[in-house]
Design brief:
This protein has about 500 residues and is α/β, with parallel strands linked by helices. It contains 18 helices and 13 strands. Bound molecules: guanosine-5'-diphosphate (GDP). The site of guanosine-5'-diphosphate has 20 residues, from helix 8.
Length: about 500
C-alpha cells in the first residue's frame, strides 16, 4: 500500500460545544503550517523551534487563545510530525481553526486516516489499529478492557509467537530438504505432529473466546416477556436507572421506545422490542407469548417476569409452554417478592416441567431427568442471601438453562443477582480476566479459523505419510492467515475498508 505523505488535518474532538477542542495536523508540513498560524503571547513564532511533546501557550491567529504541542516524527501517533492545537471547544472556533489550517496547505483528513498512517508507518500493527476504534466504540467495561488489551499488543504478541513457531518448522523442513546430508528428518514427523497439536490447541483456544468476545462487544440480545402488570417496565426502568417508561397500575398503559441497549454492570443487554412490552393495542402482545415467539429465535436470553403476588394464569401457562419447548436461556424473575407470595417458585418450576412434558416429551421423565445448569450455584447464592435460584431441570428437548431469581422492582432487589447470573450463563461463571485475550473482531476469528484448518491439513499430511514438502505448504498458509490479523499480506482494499469505518479526526 502506498503511503501518502501530504499533510492532513481534522478536528479530533466531538462536534459539539465542549470545554476543549483539539485540531490535529499531521505530515511533513505540519510544523511549518502550525508555525505560520500560532504565536506566543509576545507575538513570536515559536513552533518551528519548539521542543517536542511540550505544550505552548499562545494565540491562533486572532481566532482563539490556545495551547499548541508539536510531536516530532517518529515519536508521534502517526509517526509523522504532528501539531495539535487545543482551543476552546466551540464548534465554530474549531471549524475556523481547521479552515485556516486547510488554507495554509493541509488537506482535510479522511475518516481514520491518522490511524491508517500510524499503521502504514509501522507505529502499530493492524490488530492494534483496529483496537483504536474498538476502544472508542466500547459500550461496556469488558469491551473496553479487551480493546485496550488488544491496543497494548496482547493479541499481536500471541499471534507473532504462533507465527514464529510455525516459521521455525517451515525453515527446518526447507533446510533439511536442501541439505539432507547434514540435517536429518528422521523422527521429525512425530515431533512436528506434537507441535501441530499444541499450535492447534492455542489457536482453537483463541477462537473459542470469540463467542464471549461477540457478546461482550455487541451485547446480549434479550427479550423480556411476562403478562401485563408483572412489572416488566418497572424492572427495565430499574436497570436503566431512570424512569424512561411510564409505569402505571392499569395493565398495559405504558408505552415507550423500541429496542434499547442497557448496561447491567459490565455487560450490555440489547432489549428487543421494548415497545412490545408496553403495547396497549394488541392483546396478544400484552400477554407476551407472541413477542416471545417473534423474538426468542433471535434472542440469546429470555427474561420472563412472573408476578408472584397473584396466581399463575393462562397467560403464564402460554408463555411457559412456549419457553419450555425452546432451547433458550431463560431467567425467570420472580417479581413483586416484596408482596405476600401467592405463586411460589415450585409452582413455576412445576409448570415448566409439566408443560415441557406436554411438548412432545414424556412427562413422567420430568421428575428424574434433571439437568444441572452450568452455573456455580453456591457462588450465586452467596451473592445475595435473600434471593434463591432454582435450576429448573429440563426434561425433553430443552438444553439451555432456566434459572429463577427473586426480584422486586419496588425494593430494587434482584438486579445484582441478575447480573451475576447472566455472566454465569454467558461467560462461564466469570468474564475473562483482564489479562486474557478475547477475540472481538470477526476478521480475526476468520483468520484464526483458516489457520486452524491449515494446521489440520498438516496433521492430515503427516497421518497420510505425505512427503515433507507438503507440510510446508500448509504451514505456510497457516503462517499467512495469522499474518493477516496483524496486517501482513493484507491488500489495500481491506486496509481502506477497515479505516473507512473510523470516525473523522482519528
Ligand atoms: P408491565 O405491564 O409488566 O410492564 O408492568 P409494570 O412495570 O407497568 O408494573 C405494573 C404495576 O406493578 C405498577 O403499578 C408497578 O408499580 C407495580 N410493580 C412492578 N414491580 C413491582 C414490585 O416488585 N413490587 C410491587 N409491590 N409492585 C410492583
Amino acid at each position: 500500500m502506498v503511503l501518502t505523505t501530504d499533510t492532513i488535518a481534522a478536528i479530533a474532538t466531538g462536534m459539539t460545544d465542549s470545554g476543549i477542542g483539539i485540531v490535529r495536523i499531521s505530515g511533513k508540513k505540519a510544523v511549518e503550517i502550525g508555525d505560520g498560524l500560532f504565536t506566543s503571547p509576545s507575538g513570536k513564532r515559536i513552533l518551528k523551534n519548539a521542543e517536542s511533546h511540550r505544550l505552548y501557550h499562545g494565540f491562533f491567529l486572532n481566532i482563539d487563545e490556545v495551547m499548541a504541542v508539536v510531536m516530532k516524527s517518529p515519536r508521534s501517533f502517526t509517526g509523522e510530525d504532528i501539531v495539535e492545537i487545543q482551543c476552546h471547544g466551540g464548534v465554530l472556533v474549531m471549524q475556523k481553526i481547521l479552515e485556516a489550517i486547510l488554507k495554509a496547505g493541509a488537506r482535510l483528513a479522511e475518516p481514520g486516516e491518522f490511524t491508517k498512517r500510524a499503521f502504514l508507518n509501522g507505529r502499530m500493527d493492524l490488530s492494534m489499529a483496529e483496537a483504536v476504534i474498538d476502544v472508542i466504540h466500547s459500550q461496556n467495561e469488558f469491551a473496553l478492557t479487551s480493546s485496550v488489551n488488544q491496543l497494548k499488543g496482547m493479541l499481536s504478541e500471541k499471534v507473532k509467537a504462533l507465527r514464529a513457531d510455525i516459521l521455525y518448522e517451515i525453515a527446518f523442513i526447507e533446510s533439511a530438504l536442501d541439505d539432507p546430508e547434514h540435517i536429518s528428518l528422521d523422527g521429525y514427523t512425530d515431533r512436528l505432529a506434537k507441535k501441530i497439536d499444541n499450535l492447534s490447541e492455542s489457536v482453537s483456544a483463541l477462537i473459542k473466546t470469540a463467542d464471549n468476545g461477540k457478546l461482550i462487544k455487541e451485547g446480549i440480545s434479550t427479550v423480556i416477556v411476562g403478562k401485563p402488570n408483572a412489572g416488566k417496565s418497572s424492572l427495565l426502568n430499574l436497570i436503566m436507572g431512570e424512569d424512561r417508561a411510564i409505569v402505571t397500575d392499569v395493565a398495559g398503559t405504558t408505552r415507550d421506545i423500541l429496542q434499547e441497549t442497557i448496561r447491567l454492570g459490565g455487560i450490555s443487554l440489547n432489549i428487543m422490542d421494548t415497545a412490545g412490552i408496553r403495547d396497549t393495542e394488541d392483546i396478544v402482545e400484552k400477554i407476551g407469548v407472541e413477542k416471545a415467539k417473534k423474538f426468542a429465535g433471535k434472542a440469546d436470553l429470555v427474561l420472563y417476569v412472573a408476578d408472584t403476588s397473584v396466581s399463575l394464569d393462562e397467560n403464564d401457562r402460554e408463555i411457559i409452554s412456549f419457553l419450555s419447548s425452546h432451547k433458550k436461556n431463560v431467567i425467570v424473575l420472580l417479581n413483586k417478592s416484596d408482596l405476600p407470595s401467592v405463586t411460589t417458585e415450585d409452582e413455576i418450576r412445576g409448570l415448566f416441567e409439566e408443560l415441557s412434558g406436554q411438548n412432545g416429551k414424556k412427562a413422567d421423565t420430568a421428575q428424574n431427568d434433571t439437568l444441572k445448569a452450568n452455573v456455580p450455584l453456591d457462588d450465586i447464592n452467596s451473592k445475595e442471601n435473600n434471593a434463591e435460584q432454582i435450576i429448573v431441570e429440563k426434561p425433553g428437548n430443552r438444553t439451555e438453562k432456566v434459572i429463577m431469581i427473586k426480584s422486586s422492582a419496588r425494593n430494587q432487589s434482584g438486579l445484582e443477582q441478575l447480573e451475576y447470573t447472566i455472566k454465569s450463563i454467558f461467560f462461564q461463571g466469570e468474564i475473562k480476566s483482564s489479562n486474557e485475550i478475547v477475540i472481538t473482531n470477526m476478521r480475526h476469528k476468520e483468520a484464526l479459523q483458516e489457520a486452524y484448518d491449515s494446521l489440520g491439513m498438516v496433521k492430515k499430511s503427516i497421518q497420510d505419510n505425505m512427503p515433507e514438502d507438503f507440510y510446508s505448504i500448509d504451514l505456510m498458509s497457516a503462517y499467512s492467515s495469522l499474518g493477516r490479523i496483524i496486517g501482513e499480506e493484507v491488500d489495500d482494499d481491506l486496509v481502506n475498508e477497515i479505516f473507512s469505518k473510523f470516525c473523522m479526526g482519528k
